[in-house]
Input
Amino acid sequence: MKRILVVHYSQTGQLRDIVESVVGPLRANSEFAVTSVELKPLRPFPFPWPFWQFFDTFPECVYEEPEPIDRIAVPESAEFDLIILAYTVWFVSPSMPTMAFLQSAEAKRLFRNKPVVTIIGCRNMWLMAQERVKFHLEALGAHLIDNVALVDLTDMWATFISTPMWMLTGKRGPFLGGRVPRAGVPLDEVKRASRFGVAIARQLPRRRTDDFSSLLNDLGAVSINESLMASEPIVRRSFRAWGGLLRACGKPGSVARRLVLMLYVLFLITLILTVVPISAVVKALIKPLTRSRTERQRAYYAAPSGEAIRSESSQVDQPA
Output
């Protein structure tokens, strides 16, 4: 019997649904014993978010100084054949509970020399967050064998309205009389994520313990937005610069920090309306000159699972 550990934190419930879709075929198979752990912050994060608390969270998030979490209820002697780490993206960084876990003694013990599949559920920017997760997994001695990234497929500009509305009100929409679609990963994409569990169930039982090759190759596990490849590093550098300034102003909730935070919100709106589209336009204009470099970057970010989209005839059979 193969033992699988699933670790996740879902503030809105969307990631929990994605995890259940992926893990469902494994739970239904007698060849697997699945242990699921939901991370629990000692001080729960609210949902929906209060406006200022939402923005006041980002400095510590991007500087990887997370709020503490409860110890996970996994026996010290437990060993697993595969670990599935599912996380959401906060401010182009892994969510705070995810980062707290990756920094924990439990992660150091559990992840060493183990194959890991990461699952991401987010709006659309996940490349820089995954880079940080990859860094920490390598430091833990783990082997990243696959990555699944499910994103909001709505037009990017619509998500600038729908996602903040969801985070700040708890309502997913549609908004503005249907002109702005429902926020989040489409429900049919969540359901289709079960194909990843099917693929794992089919291959894992016969794999050697020292085989760290992909289980999900050619399943369309990720989709790379080339315009965001250029934007994400810019956004992350901005978050780091402003985050450093805000941390210097005091602790979360302090008056001085709140005043600077007001300036930051105005800056962020300007960044979204100017730098992001400008970088996308520049990227499109120079694309013929940078095609080879872009393809290398695209392949790098898509690894290890790749982003090849399969034809219907080659799809893994879905469970009834």
About this structure: The longest strand covers residues 82-90. The two ends are 23 Å apart (CA to CA). Residues 76 and 109 are 8 Å apart (CA to CA).
